[in-house]
Amino acid sequence: MVVGIHRKTYAKVDLSAIKHNIVVEKKQLANKQNIFAVVKANAYGHGIIEVAKAAHEVGVAGYCVAIIDEALALRKAGLNELILVLGVNPFEYASLMAKNNISATVGDIDFLKKAQVVLSTEKQQLSVHLALDTGMGRIGFRTQKELREAADFIKQHSTEFNFEGIFTHFSTADSGEKVAVDYYEKQIAEFNELISCLEELPEYVHVANSAASIWHKECGGNTIRFGITMYGLNPSSDELSIPSEFKPAISLLSEVAAIKKIKKNDSVGYGKTYTAKEDEWIATIPIGYADGWLRKMQGFKILIADHFCEIVGRVCMDQIMVKVPWKMAVGTTVILIGKKGQKEIRVQDVADQVGTIHYEVTCLISERVPRIY
User: Which residue ranges form the domains of the chain, and what is each CATH number?
Assistant: First the structure.
């Protein structure tokens, strides 16, 4: 993907806000738990290497990523803390992960048995975190029998495996609705029941994500997987409140690339979905759905020269058209996400417009939009 360094559309990432949010989280933790900084998916669109280095500066126990390639990128960048790949992988990659000191998520005994042969041949040891499926229905052991078998196998093959961690993932910790709270309580009870069969727990027991660390401090464990709130965003969207100390870290900006006056009854954009009711000034902004600014953003208002201005006509692949109150100068700053004075466009506002969650909004900001730190 070519990064757009020759156009003034970019995401501005405030690394000081990310470091601040980690410090705030540490102060919130009652039992001084460890923090794993979750930097998967290019740090939720914020930039994996830069965010990981910022987290390193304020002290984290490790990082969580989704895929091996993300872990390898962190190692190449010189980060030496624990790195856990949250997704499961084929046993053929056991040697690669061991060689690079990357911790593997394990959710079935078959991986362990096949990986043991590989690791034994290569004379390597792999650190593993056992995933427990307590109700997410995604990956992990579901019964005490399965878990005991895996733990016993690891113990019997301690030359090839280091039992480093155990975890589960909550599916409803970000909601205050009774049905969601009840399900969260069911999951934590299931987790505690499962681990009760183990003679000894590993070094890292991590059950809390950002949501659980804020609203369910009683969930236990000695480590927090700190994800969306590290970026200053609310895990529950607007349903529940988070401490006001957390600061959003990302802004999305561009500029007016062209300006023209159209006449009453003139139309704008593909499909003739907007027709002017009077003579109007139309500004063209160089951002579109190929940048992650989706077609559903038609009708949304963005900030130009301290005015909320409506996107008119369909969002194009590379450009949008916006109705503005006067002939604005080419080069005028445009705020698509961010704040100026008392006026603000939140990531959540964008998510509400397209009917999704803010996680998806930041992850969709494409690679051709440069990140400025």
Answer: 31-231 (3.20.20.10), 250-372 (2.40.37.10)
Catalytic residue among 40, 63, 231, 323: 40
Tell me if 94 sits within 8 A of 85, measured CB to CB: no
Catalytic residue among 113, 145, 186, 270: 270
Residues 6+ apart with CB under 8 A from 353: 296, 297, 299, 300
**Per-residue confidence in pLDDT tens, the chain, 373 aa:** 677 789 999 999 999 999 999 999 999 886 789 999 999 999 999 999 999 999 999 999 999 999 999 999 999 999 999 999 999 999 999 999 999 999 999 999 999 999 999 999 999 999 999 999 999 999 999 999 999 999 999 999 999 999 999 999 999 999 999 999 999 999 999 999 999 999 999 999 999 999 999 999 889 999 999 999 999 999 999 999 999 999 999 999 999 999 999 999 999 999 999 999 999 999 999 999 999 999 999 999 999 999 999 999 999 999 999 999 999 999 999 999 999 999 999 999 999 999 999 999 999 999 999 999 9
CA dist 365 and 373 (Å) reads: 15
Please confirm, yes or no, whether 274 is among the known catalytic residues.
no
40 as an active site residue: the answer is yes
pTM of the model: 0.96
Do residues 239 and 214 touch, judged by C-beta distance below 8 A? no
Tokens 């061991």 belong to 98
Residue 140 contacts residue 207 (beta carbons within 8 Å): no
Identify the burial level of 64 via C-beta atoms within 10 angstroms of its C-beta, where 0-12 means exposed, 13-18 middle and 19 or more buried. buried
